[in-house]
Backbone:
């Protein structure tokens, strides 16, 4: 599971994953009501490794998730959704994002 730092989860998400997640799929919040939730995804370890993992060379807060999703797609991993009600976005401005980049 990949979760952006500005997203909170409910305990019910773990229950949903245990009952519904299938190997060979990557799941994102459905519907994605905020572009800030696009960085939250769930997949099994085999799919993660098949796609080459998450590139840790990225710094900051933008394209790393899109590249990972493209690698999953290119490796035949299907997409699915989980109820977005299991996520809560911590509202903030871009100043906090920029501060995070400078601290690294």
Residues:
């Amino acid at each position: 599971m990949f979760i952006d730092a500005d997203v909170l989860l409910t305990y019910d998400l773990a229950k949903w994953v245990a009952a519904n997640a299938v190997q060979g799929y990557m799941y994102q919040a459905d519907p994605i009501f905020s572009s800030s939730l696009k960085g939250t995804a769930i997949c099994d370890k085999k799919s993660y490794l098949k796609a080459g993992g998450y590139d840790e060379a990225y710094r900051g807060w933008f394209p790393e998730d899109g590249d990972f999703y493209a690698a999953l797609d290119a490796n035949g991993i299907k997409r699915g959704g989980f109820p977005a009600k299991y996520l809560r976005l911590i509202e903030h401005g871009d100043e906090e994002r920029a501060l995070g980049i400078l601290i690294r």
